Amino acid sequence: MILVINSILLVGVTIALACLIANEINLERIIHLGLKGINHELDRRRLRKEIKKYTMAVKVKMSLPEKIELYLIDKSNIRHYLPFFNFYFLCFIIVSIFVLTFGYVFKILLFVPSAAAVCFLFSLIPVFILDIMGRYNSEKIRRKLADFISVLNRWCAVKEDIFYAFEKSVESGIGEPLRTFIKDMVIQVNCGIEPLEALDILQMKVDNAQFKDFLINIKQNIKHRGDIRKLLSNLEGQFYKIEEEYNRRKISTYKDRLLIYFIMFSVLFIGYFFLKSTPKIEDFYLNTLAGKSLLMVFCFLYACGFYMTLKITSFKH
Hints:
Elements lengths: L1 H23 L2 H33 L4 H13 L10 H23 L2 H12 L1 H34 L3 H10 L6 H13 L4 H11 L3 H16 L3 H22 L4 H24 L1 H9 L1 H23 L6
């Protein structure tokens, strides 16, 4: 009986102490700061790997996983929303979609090569989404480039150091995806990487001709110790004029690519509708060797069309 009473009193005292500590200490703030610190450390570890990978990639040909990491994952800025996203996670999603759709598509086409080709296209949906996100980021950075240069120019008026301006611009709320790209570049410089190499990595991440011109000017200014404020003032006026011309001509590749993907995926559903609309057509393509072979060729050509669409990266102004 005494043991039970002592246990109850001990539990009561523990609860009372816990309540007092909770009132005195802002647990939410501690948890927030802890998570922020963990995320910051994860960013630093990831960027250390990028330093080794991309600085070598400038001199040595990149492997396929490295190209996918750079041209799809980094450019899409998907890690801002899913920090754990990498090449292997993307492969897992692709394989999962292929496996989940193969059984259903095979029941419709009744031919393994054709079903595999169609399911392969469906499995590449994450790739198309990342590509669209990358194009959208490129368009967004181009539209905000003049404003970003204006922010850099103001910070250079405080201290004539472009990397100081880059660091302060992150705190100025420049917006995504540019904020993440610039923050990564600043961390890389703080970790000891050469500033010009950090700018090269940044240039590879942002697939935009105007941003590339901006970085080339910055690198030349660093090399030859030019007047950074005068350069930024000239670039600011130049890119405002370029953006005005873009708006006047309504030039955009992002919406065009989005429309192309929508039309090409619509072809699959339209083809299925026509295949099922007439029994003779369905019998020919699903039950005869010649029809199955033709269907396989059509699927292969369709896949080639998607590949060619992915290869479209620029247009003539």
